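Example 4.3 (complexes with small molecules)
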Amino acid sequence: MDTKAFKRSLQHSENYHRRGFGHQEEVATQLKSEYQSHLIQEIRNSNYNFQRDNVTIRLAQAFGFCWGVERAVAMAYETRQHFPTEQIWITNEIIHNPSVNQRLREMQVKFIPVTDGNKDFSIVESGDVVILPAFGASVQEMQILNDKGCKIVDTTCPWVSKVWNTVEKHKKGEFTSIIHGKYNHEETVATSSFAGKYLIVLNMHQAEYVVNYILNGGDKHEFMAKFAKACSSGFDPDIDLERVGIANQTTMLKGETEEIGKLFERTMMKKYGPQELNQHFQSFNTICDATQERQDAMFELVEEKVDLMIVIGGFNSSNTTHLQEIAVERKIPSYHIDCVERIKSNNMIEHRELTGELKITENWLPEGEIVVGVTSGASTPDKVVEEIIEKIFELKQSVAMV
Ligand code: SF4
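Answer. The structure with iron/sulfur cluster bound is encoded below.
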């Protein structure tokens, strides 16, 4: 399928919308009242430090909603206003935040049902409105919706579209896209649908396995078993790793994407020599600024003296998990939670471990004066951060009064 030509024709269709509907001002007021917070603004204004009684909060200097997420949520709200009576669907969570998704449900925006791991588009009818989320949708899904005659509201973040353009360039130049990401993450599913040949590597460990195969060959069956779910159909590591280009899921750890890129560059240089490098390796910078800023701010925050860290974001949010990784690497007690309800009154907290498991930790709030580092992923509204900080103040105060 010529994905580029399809995308171009879709963008010219009168059923396709990607710029909002002119209700920005009303929606901005609504979003402000639903998602912004006075307390968080106060903390920002006091240089990201705030003390109440025996608790000091140190907030990361970049955290929370990125502009791509704000834009997507605003467009979803505008869509509801613009199509007050139409059935509105969304192909996936608009962003990885439970409270925002719940709010959309309350506005009668329905999620496409999933049966046996597959989305059931049969429920969508011609004339229905379908929103594509911030991290995009696969080209096959767009085609189904277009064929059905749906009105498509595309909130895909321009940074994600930039990655799609990159894999299109790889395809045109007959390079295999090496995508640094999680093969089952919605964004990577969408990105790979625009690629020609592709291989998805999760981390440096997998990248090293692949470059070792490039340089020294290896067991093809083992290779294919390892990447069975993470490569294009018909992929052959003996043929399809001769020309490679780098792409990424926008929310991966920036440093790791860069290292993986350099590793492949060195490998191709070693195998084919510097003169031939451009024939065998391509790389464009597709790391999103917002992800980078949040990670950089987290690296700064963990340099300060904090007793514990709270990392706030959806449990399926990749960028939040990476923030948590930074704290864990520094051996700082750190709790990834998605909402205030995870904090129980009796000094217990339910949080997500890096393995994905939910764990309950008791006595997580130390006695006496404490410094708490706080950050949140790109899909987290300030209101959620405020609720969590207020809960910590409340708990510490109740302990002090006992
Ligand atoms: S994290 Fe980056 S790529 Fe993702 S929605 Fe935000 S701005 Fe866009």
